[in-house]
Each structure stands twice: as structure tokens, then as C-alpha cells.
Design goal:
Elements (H helix, E strand, L loop, with lengths): L1 E10 L2 E11 L3 E6 L6 H8 L7 E6 L2 E3 L4 H6 L2 E4 L11 H6 L7 E2 L2 E2 L1 H14 L15 H14 L4 E5 L7 H16 L3 E5 L3 H7 L2 E6 L2 E7 L5 H9 L14 E14 L3 E10 L15
Parallel strand pairs: 3-10, 3-11, 6-9, 9-10
Antiparallel strand pairs: 1-2, 1-4, 4-5, 7-8, 11-12, 13-14
Helix pairs in contact: 4-5
Length: 292
């Protein structure tokens, strides 16, 4: 369906992509992985028309695309769900989903909000978001906001859905629910480009994996032929070595920092902790507690 051929892109002092060729087929989840700086984000932006390549072509169903802006990509069914949650908190779920298509519902200068809600509900059902579409988006969880963004992409007749680090703000349970949604979209023939640093998730959800290294295409392989170590080797160009650096020498009898009853209105209440000499103290944030 979507093919990028010999794509190159340079910025001042940096060659971000060098003759990268990839094919994304309908009805599959295709993961793109690589280290930071490997060229993943640049490739995504080229496919979406945000950047124009210095060399190379992009074709969809055999027709070469001349993409000069993201709107050009959207008009051809290429939709991006970025890593950053991009919803308007004061708007409803329905308004967020149809925000860039609101002109469809205007008649004689008046917007038919009933049609907006009805059409949006089609896509919330498609992504498994079991909430009234008139619910304000500001009170949604990160996972629910992510589903709103995917529903918005699908409402634009997405044929190619690009997901950039979609689980970065999700719990394990929420990520697994998202994967169920993606499998359903894959079975409907959507081509899904899944960009992630989480290799366990890549192996769980992807049908094929493509690796970039230093702006160059390394290879594409079916997920069933790969292990996490094999992907790491492709990413680094060498085998990774895990070596123990020993254990921390913690002195439980030496308290170097202590806090009791730390409270901030509407954020946290009555926090107590101690930090001991030689210790690394971590804080875990649940959905009910905000530490910062």
C-alpha cells in the first residue's frame, strides 16, 4: 500500500536519513525501531508531509505522492497519532474527534451538533471507548485520551495509521487494551506503523519489524523470527552485553534525608519518606497521586 523509496533527508550538519526504503502493507502492524537519533521521527514526518525529503519518493497504491504539508497526507488517508496527548480539555470527546472536520456538519451557517455526536460515537465504538461522546475530554485518563486521538484519526478515513510511542503514558493494562484495538483495526485492513522503544511490546503486537540505525535502513523481518536480543543487535550493529555492576552498599542506620507529612493541596497529602546513605530512592506515581 504505502512505499517509501530511497528517502534521504539532511539538516544543517546532520544527515538524518540516507536512502531509506520501506513498504507498509494493509492489514498488518509494522514496527519501526532504532536507537535515539536513528531517524524514526524524521521518517514519520516525511511520510506525513511535515518534512519534504531531499531525495526519494513516496507512493500510495502505486501513485507517487507530492506531500507538502500534513494536510496533504491526511487527505490521502495517512494519519499520525503523536506521542504527546493532543486533546482540547474543555471540549467534549465528540468535539475533539470531529474538530478538524466540523465544516461537514454546518448547514446554513449552523452546526448540527446532534450529527457531530452521532458520527463521533461510530468511532468511539470502533476503538472501544465506552463513554458518552458528550463527556468533557479534560477528565479522561491518558489511555482514554489516546483512544480519542485514534478515533479522530480513523474519522479521517485513515488507511495508514502511524503511532509514535503510543504507550509512553499508559499502564501495562491500558497498553494491552490498546493492542486489542490495534489488532481489530489491522483486521479491518488498516496499515499500522508502530514506533516504539519498548521491544517487548514490539514483539507482542507487530507482524513485521524494521530497524533503522544512524539514518540507514538495516532490515525488515517477521516478528516470529526475532527475539529482543536479535533486535538489539540489529539496532546497535553488535551484540549487547549485560554486565552486573554489583549491589548498592546501603547504610540503613544513616538517614541523610527525611520528610514527614509533606502536603500540597489537591496534589498529595501526608507523604513520609527517608533516604539512607548509599541508597537510590524511587517514587511511583499512581493515577490517584501526583508527585510533581
Amino acid at each position: 500500500m504505502l512505499h517509501v523509496e530511497a528517502i534521504s533527508k539532511s539538516f544543517p550538519g546532520v544527515r538524518a536519513l540516507s536512502e531509506v526504503s520501506l513498504t507498509f502493507a494493509p492489514g498488518e502492524v509494522h514496527a519501526v525501531v532504532g536507537e535515539n537519533g536513528a531517524g524514526k521521527s524524521t521518517l514519520i514526518k516525511v511520510i506525513c508531509g511535515i518534512y519534504q525529503p531531499d531525495e526519494g519518493t513516496i507512493t500510495l497504491d502505486g501513485t507517487e505522492l507530492g506531500l507538502h504539508a500534513y494536510s496533504d497526507a491526511m487527505a490521502r488517508g495517512i494519519q499520525l497519532v503523536s506521542q504527546e496527548i493532543q486533546v482540547v480539555p474543555r471540549m467534549t470527546i465528540a468535539e475533539n474527534i470531529m474538530l478538524d472536520k466540523i465544516g461537514r456538519f454546518r448547514r446554513r451557517g449552523v452546526i448540527d451538533w446532534g450529527r457531530v455526536a452521532a458520527d463521533a460515537a461510530v468511532f468511539t465504538r470502533l476503538v472501544g471507548l465506552d463513554l458518552p461522546v458528550l463527556t468533557p475530554a479534560g477528565g479522561l485518563s491518558a489511555a482514554q485520551k489516546q483512544l480519542v486521538m485514534i478515533a479522530k484519526a480513523l474519522s479521517g478515513d485513515a488507511r495508514v495509521l502511524i503511532l509514535d510511542e503510543p504507550t509512553s503514558s499508559l499502564t501495562l493494562h491500558e497498553a494491552n487494551n490498546l493492542f486489542g484495538v490495534l489488532r481489530g483495526l489491522r483486521d479491518r485492513g488498516v496499515a499500522i506503523v508502530f514506533v516504539s522503544h519498548k521491544l517487548e511490546e514490539v514483539l507482542q503486537i507487530a507482524d513485521r519489524v524494521s530497524v533503522l540505525r544512524d539514518g540507514r535502513f538495516v532490515g525488515t523481518r517477521p516478528t516470529g523470527e526475532l527475539t529482543k536480543d536479535a533486535i538489539v543487535t540489529m539496532m546497535l550493529g553488535r551484540s549487547a552485553v549485560n554486565r552486573s555492576l554489583g549491589t548498592l552498599d546501603i547504610h540503613q542506620d544513616q538517614v541523610v534525608l527525611e520528610a514527614r507529612g509533606i502536603t500540597q493541596a489537591d496534589r498529595f497529602d501526608g507523604l513520609d519518606f527517608q533516604l539512607h546513605a548509599g541508597e537510590i530512592l524511587g517514587f511511583w506515581q499512581s493515577k490517584l497521586v501526583q508527585l510533581g
